[in-house]
Amino acid sequence: MIGIKQEFSLVNEENLIGIPKLWEKVNSNGTGDRLAKLNNGQIDGLLGVCVDKRKVEKSETMDYWIGAEYAGKVPEEFSTLMIPASKWVVFEVHGPMPDSMQQAWKRIFSEWFPTSGHEHAGTPELEVYDNADASNPDYYSEIWIPIKKG
C-alpha cells in the first residue's frame, strides 16, 4: 500500500483523539482524494492501517497509516508499507465515524478475542473505508484483524 503515516501514543488513548484529526486533515487537504484515485488493488476504498510498535520497540506507540492498495511508481509525497499475507477475520462496522469504529475496536479486544480461541498474528490491522459520507448513520466500514489459531 501507499500512503502517509503518523506515530501516536497509546497512553491515555491519545490515539483515539489523534487519528480522527489525521483523517480530517487528509480529507480536507486533498490527500484522501489523491489516494482514492491511485487505488489499483483488490481492496476498494481507503485504508487505515494500525502498526502496533509495543512489542518491537518496547514503547507505548503505534504508527497509523492512511493509504490505498497500489502497485506502480510511488508518487513522491507517499511512503509504502508492505502488509504480509495473513488469515483475516473481518468485522463489519455500521454507523458514523469515528465513534462506531472506536466502539468496534473495543468490542473486538474486550469481547471477541477472549472467547474466540484465536490469537492476533502480530501483523498490521486494517480499517477499510468506502468513499461514502463517513458521518452518515448508515455508513459501512470494516476492521480486518490478522489471526493465528490459539
Features:
about 150 residues; alpha+beta; eight-stranded antiparallel β-sheet; 4 helices; 8 strands; about 30% helix; globular
Q: Can you put this structure into words, describing what you see?
A:
It contains four helices and eight strands. Helix content is about 30%, strand content about 35%. The model has no long low-confidence stretch (mean pLDDT about 95). The chain has helices at about 15-30, 30-40, 55, 100-115; strands at about 1-10, 45-50, 60-70, 80, 85-95, 120, 125-130, 140-150. The radius of gyration is 15 Å and the shape is globular. Strands 1, 2, 3, 4, 5, 6, 7 and 8 form an eight-stranded antiparallel beta sheet that branches. It has about 150 residues and is an alpha+beta fold.
Protein topology:
Layout: E1 2-9, H1 14-28, H2 31-38, E2 46-52, H3 54-57, E3 61-68, E4 79-80, E5 87-94, H4 99-116, E6 118-120, E7 125-129, E8 140-149
Antiparallel strand pairs: 1-3, 1-4, 2-3, 2-7, 5-8, 6-8, 7-8
Please outline what is shown here.
This protein is an alpha+beta fold and 150 residues long. Helix content is 30%, strand content 34%.
Identify the overall geometry: globular
Count every helix, treating DSSP H or I runs of 4 or more residues as helices.
4
Order of helical and strand elements? EHHEHEEEHEEE
Number of strands: 8
Q: Rg from C-alpha positions? A: 15 Å
Report the average pLDDT across residues.
Answer: 95
SSE class: alpha+beta
Strand content: 25-35%
Helix content: 25-40%
